[in-house]
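Fold this: Peroxisomal membrane protein PEX16
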Amino acid sequence: MAVMQGEITLPSHEAMDTMFSELHRRRRLGYKDEHFHRFGLGRALNYVNDLSALADIPSHKPFKQIILRIVLIRLLFSYTEFKKYQYRVGSDEKVTEILDGQVVNTWRDLVWLVSKRMSRLLYQDFFGVLNVIAVMLTSKMKSYFV
């Protein structure tokens, strides 16, 4: 309806052809259709910021993205404890993380957490982890050469 009223213009034939050629290329590489429109965290946040710019709405403050990344890392690597942390944002928009009433050095704590969990995983199933990494690398490499 918006196209008929002239509020929205459709992409040109050339733009649609490039979209479809990318779609066909991904299908040749073996990607499933449901994987075509997935965003990673960074691209999803950029997409939301672009939409807010188009709508003239103020975009997210950077500290919200930082808190989201911290919480997602904690959720992934310590899902039993990530709810124990509290977050405060200072007047300078710096994020402070608090656990049991004490301020935590966030980045050092996250590096320690990820290192500890990954070392346990490597110790328990080194060849399984190596296989997952090899599959991920070959799929990335395959997309560069096709």
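The radius of gyration is 21 Å. The first helix runs from residue 13 to 28.
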